[in-house]
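pinging the channel bc i need a second pair of eyes. not urgent but kinda urgent?? the chain im working w is below, pasted from the shared doc
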Amino acid sequence: MNEELDVIFVGVAGSGVVRVEGDEHPLSAGALVIVPKGVRRSTHASSEGFAYLTVHRRRGPLQIGV
């Protein structure tokens, strides 16, 4: 779960699915899926060569946690 940032998935090649809180959103080249912060998400390839980019605001440096 991403609790910090909204994320945009941009399809680059092939096809797949972005699951947002259990709802499936198809993703293929040129398509966008917006995922708000605070929700569960996952991706699944439907074809060979599935590729996507994620876009979000810049966040602070990674922290080592306990």
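so Residues 3 and 65 are 16 Å apart (CA to CA). and DSSP finds no helices and six strands in the chain. — does that match what u expected or am i reading it wrong
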